[in-house]
Specification:
single chain, 112 residues, mainly alpha, 5 helices
Length: 112
Amino acid sequence: EGLSVPLPNQKIGIAKNIRTVEWLKAELVSGTGELMRGLVRGAEDKILDSLAGIVVTAYILAERLGIGFATLDAKIASKVKANIEQSHEIEEWFGDFSALARYSEEIRGDNR
């Protein structure tokens, strides 16, 4: 009574999700390779396309792993804030984390 056996449709869904997660992981690796090739060539359109693909794939992978978009966004905001507070080298040199935090606040309409 305590244990339940997955029904055939559930088994198919689980297998499909596993295959999708594996495909998304491969997409991340492939996207990273495309990004590196774009950087070597200095091809801005390829760099932009690769970066966008990596970000989209990361969001979809999170969703397939049971992590909602909002949860991922919150974790990203937390990491950005931590890097600002810890005076990460990139923050000290360029202010990139602060710029990202300001941009995120603008697109969310936050003015905290």
